[in-house]
């Protein structure tokens, strides 16, 4: 069969492009001053918490105001943000990966007017609609997942705990009193679509009980092989059971499943495939608090967060125990860490035993990090370059093996 060209021209990739398939080119959404100086920025500085200035080779300056916003927004809230962007930023704004909105202007006069407008916007309860902050050595906005609003496998809420924690740490969001930036994240279950495994402080929803099984309806509502295959640890297996029917009261034999409770890791993947295997439980669900992770290569290697509080009960609507515990960690870090030292670097410098002491946290055998593997101590764990006595002065002496 002869090849028939679709008409795509690699030299002109945008020619005759159907724009309702896939994303539009990002260049269409860049403010003119950003597009003009794209890739030609010299430096930037934080003028004050939440306000940055970028300097370009051309001499142009861009002033950015960063404001915290809720991850789940109403249409009215979005319209408020767009009205401000239309008024001061020629209709342009930017959403960051940490649930912030950035408004960009090209002069100091516009900057002051924009800040005044943002600070004047408040909710009926009196809180700021567009709080300015989240830059430099302070608390950044909390990244979180769906929680009880949308997700089907959460062990805790997302918006609720985040709101409570940020209410308590709001001063550190608007100031830069900490030794370095402090990133807090929340994932409402072990599947971690919030990627909390590398955060300074991580709030993780955790199930402690295996899924319940609705034996009478599982074969009617689910493809049992899919539920079995969904388990990452092979804890679900098929099993025929004799049960008493809820409708007739008669004893019947049904096709169902059995869960190996010792092997189950409470991830909820089976419930994703089968609604007759619910996992949520009032007593079993709660929060695990982790600390010390980071993605950055700066000063030290990236590292995973470690469990520092094994379990905190869900206490809606204000989650007082969670909020109090995080406050103790933040205050101890602010008091004891050196400048530019991230929370995990500080904990490793003073020792994790001392970390638990100064943060007034209880330690149990459940918190011992006993993971060991040949890769743990033999393979390169980071992209940080390790200088040796051969580099860079005797590079020519190194021979390539053939």
Which helices and strands, and how do they pair?
Blueprint: H1 32-36, E1 41-48, E2 51-56, E3 61-68, H2 75-88, E4 94-95, E5 100-105, H3 108-120, H4 159-168, H5 170-174, E6 184-187, E7 201-206, H6 218-221, H7 224-230, E8 236-244, E9 251-259, H8 269-273, E10 286-291, E11 306-313, H9 320-336, H10 343-350, H11 352-358, H12 374-378
Parallel strand pairs: 6-7
Antiparallel strand pairs: 1-2, 2-3, 3-5, 4-5, 7-10, 8-9, 10-11
Essential attributes:
402 residues; 4-stranded mixed beta sheet; alpha+beta; globular; 5-stranded antiparallel beta sheet; single chain
Describe what you observe in this structure.
With 402 residues, this protein is α+β, with helices and mostly antiparallel strands. It is globular and about 80 Å long.
Helical coverage, percent range: 10-25%
- How many strands in all? 11
Report the total helices.
12
- Please report which band the strand proportion falls in: under 5%, 5-15%, 15-25%, 25-35%, 35-45% or over 45%: 15-25%
Secondary-structure element sequence?
Answer: HEEEHEEHHHEEHHEEHEEHHHH
Residue stretches low in confidence (pLDDT < 50, at least 5 long) are 390-402
- Give the class from helix and strand content and strand pairing: alpha+beta
- What topology, given as strand order, has the largest sheet? 1-2-3-5-4
Spatial extent as radius of gyration: 26 Å
Distance between the termini: 46 Å
Shape: globular
Biggest beta sheet attributes: 5 strands, antiparallel
The quaternary structure here is single chain
Mean pLDDT: 87
